[in-house]
Amino acid sequence: MIIELSHRVTEGMTTYPSIPGPVMGVHLSREDSRDLYAPGTEFHIGVVTLAANTGTYVDTPYHRYPDGADLTRVPLEKLADLPGLVVRARGGGRAVVLDRSLDVRGRAVLIDTGWDRHFGTDAYADGHPYLAPESAAWLAEQGAALVGIDSLNVDDTPPRGERPAHTILLGAGIPVVEHLTGLEALPGDGFRFHAAPPMIAGMGSFPVRAYAVVPG
């Protein structure tokens, strides 16, 4: 079974306050394409202008560090077909502190806060859950492969604030996937997680089609 974990990207949508929404357009319409092909044959070629941090996206080390790996240099082994682990963190306060008895090495650790229910509303950016810095440090020490969360940010987001989880995780070469959705549909473990972006040079973040493959 395949479970969708991504938000739909639509014209003008808001993902993060102050980041502009996508603008959709057409490079070649179906009507105009009829002049280029045999009768009965037509195509549509669209154009989209969007910020890299739109919808459900992955952050690579280059997002935080100028010498870090960009989208083209993070190996697929860190983004696709990863053994997954869901951490349930609903109703436990804003800062998510992980149980250190968890086996996280080599796994995609997905934090289920339930905050995705607010996506697309003003409430999404107001008091969102985030990963406690000490837990980010522990995940890096334990060798987690990837960290994901279904809220606005893996860090707390006060104005001009520090971003310790990004700093720690991306500094350790651990990709971060933000704005996940639907994590409540996953089992605690026993699934495979995928969130690979296009190979675009010089980019530190980009939307992904995140999903999980659950046996049976």
Structural class: alpha/beta
Total number of beta strands:
13
The total of helices stands at 3
- Give Rg in angstroms: 18 Å
**SSE topology string:** EEHEEEEEEHEHEEEE
How would you describe the shape?
globular
Biggest β-sheet: strands ordered side by side in the sheet: 1-13-11-5-7-9-10-4-12
Distance between the termini: 6 Å
Which percent range fits the helix content? 10-25%
Strand percentage lies at 15-25%
Biggest sheet character: 9 strands, mixed
Provide mean pLDDT, rounded. 97
Low-confidence stretches: none
Layout of helices and strands:
Blueprint: E1 2-4, E2 23-28, H1 30-33, E3 45-49, E4 57-59, E5 82-88, E6 95-96, E7 108-112, E8 130-131, H2 133-142, E9 146-149, H3 164-171, E10 176-178, E11 189-194, E12 205-207, E13 211-213
Parallel strand pairs: 5-7, 6-8, 7-9, 9-10
Antiparallel strand pairs: 1-13, 2-3, 4-10, 4-12, 5-11, 11-13
Helix pairs in contact: 2-3
Describe this structure in words.
The protein has 216 residues and is an alpha/beta fold. The protein is 10% helix and 24% strand. The chain has three helices and 13 strands; from the N terminus they run E-E-H-E-E-E-E-E-E-H-E-H-E-E-E-E. It has helices at 30-33, 133-142, 164-171, and strands at residues 2-4, 23-28, 45-49, 57-59, 82-88, 95-96, 108-112, 130-131, 146-149, 176-178, 189-194, 205-207, 211-213. The strands form three sheets. The protein has a nine-stranded mixed beta sheet, covered by helices on one side. Helix 3 links the parallel strand 9 and strand 10 (176-178). The chain is globular and about 65 Å long. The mean pLDDT is 97.
